[in-house]
Amino acid sequence: MNFVDRMVGVFFPEAGLRRRRARALLERAYEGAARTDGWRPRRAGASANTDHRADARELRIRARSLVKNVPYITHGLRSLVSCTVGTGIEPRSLATRGAEVLDTLWSQWVPQADADGIFDLYGLQAAAYHAMEQDGEVLVRRRVRRPGDALTVPLQVQLLEIDWLDSAKQGSASDGGQIINGIEYDLLGKPRAYWLFSAHPGEYQGRPLRIDSKPVPAADIIHLFRPNRPGQGRGITRLAPVIARARDLMLYEDAELQRKNLETRLGLVVSGDATQMSNPPDSFGQPAEGGDGKRTYGDLGVLPSGGITEVAPGLNMQQIEPKTSSDYAAYVKLQLHLIAAGMGVPYESMTGDMKEVNFSSARIRHIDFRRDCEQVQWLVLVPKLCMGLWRWFVDAAVLGGKVSQADYGVDWSTPRWDYVNPHQDVRAEADQIKSGLLSPSESLRRRGYKPDQVFAEMGRDLEKMRSSGALELMRLFMSSGQVSAAEQADTTEET
Questions:
Q1: Which of 5, 122, 193, 346 could make an S-S bridge to 184, C-beta 3.0–4.6 Å?
Q2: How far is CA 326 from the centre of its chain?
């Protein structure tokens, strides 16, 4: 009770009682919101863009350093890319007219898509997603080409690190919009332009480059990032929650390595009359002196294995033995588990440690990780990256006169997932198809196959087998296999 409350209580008891009741109601119902525990979060109440402007660059630099220098961080990020993008997320046109033409043009354009000539289009997908997770965001720029460039469609795309975006560009736009962290927004808050440098600001050619930024229309830019907060205009690296922990683990491992190196050397502490030791003299016949003016004494030479070495009387020698850390392995493993959880990657996939893995735990973790990857595929990569590339491609096909009208209808096939238990998984999926809970096309799409291509290939194979007489042989093999399976099941039941 403060001074004012005490005085009110003395002169106006009823009013003082009401003040005490009101103050009790103001006590926080959630213990986590108490301000008496000393917890003061940084920049409490700041917007997502303010947080990004303050920390994103430093986080990005540190994340890149970890990916370059820490093996398990590198492997964990590679696992994310291989499971989420794999060999590419492929489209199938659903256009009412010219669908087959668009599919053919796409397959021909894939190896031509990269403006830098490094990747094909699916390699660009993997590189873009890798940059998104490492840096938090990445840019893909449309490059319209001339008809004389001999491309399937007059289009190429360029992958740009987020460093190309002038994050220092802030303020009001000419027509009432805003420029926030290098992105120009219109009055409705929709991106209108991206202020890009003419070259990478980190490029060094004997001397630092002097470059300026210019606006590029938002229609020519795919800004790939994963927003975590409403109103967030820029992305934060996936490694942000584990950067400090990974660095601390690196320092701990370095200290342990130094201790191990020290153990490999025989260090002695000599007490007594050290002048009795034989020492290699200097050029004047005197024992060598160190930088502090004190005499230094040589080592004992090569000690014989299992032998007895005689030393001068009066000398006491004690070997330096660094204390070992008995819980080193357990501590490192715990930290790696926490880092893997922060990255959203299975511990086994990040470290390659399979000692404690069994079938049940592997299956459960596989399912969780698959759901996480599918969420990124269908909520981030497909709507932001893949659909943006497809619209540019269709527009370029219309511009090049390959198709008559722009129809953006498309179906996407993500990389197939390997079975954890192939026999049981296939039988369960077949039962779903038989019961009408799953269509064959959907089953094929889940596995990363294009249903139309599979059905066409199966039809051609069936015709070949029927004409060659192999169909009857296949039926014989299948019937014999079913009989064998039935006999085995009967034997198992009897047993």
A1: 193
A2: 33
Contact in structure between 288 and 280 (CB atoms under 8 Å): yes
Tens-place pLDDT, residues 419-471: 667 777 788 888 888 898 888 888 887 776 778 888 888 898 888 888 888 88
Three-state secondary structure call for residue 142: strand
Q: What is the pLDDT of residues 176-191, one digit of tens each?
A: 889 999 999 999 889 9
Strand partners, 319: 268
Phi, psi for 460 (deg, rounded to 5): -65, -40
Collect all residues with Cβ–Cβ distance below 8 Å to 363 and sequence separation of at least 6. Answer: 420, 421
> For residues 122 and 245, what is the distance between their CA atoms, to the nearest angstrom?
33
In the numeric block, which tokens belong to residue 153? 């469609």
Q: Is residue 393 within a helix (H) or strand (E), and if so which, with residue range?
A: helix 387-399
271 bridge partner residues: 316
Neighbours of 110 (CB within 10 A): 19
Residue 279 has pLDDT above 70, yes or no: no
Question: Are residues 138 and 160 in contact, defined by beta-carbon separation less than 8 angstroms?
Answer: yes
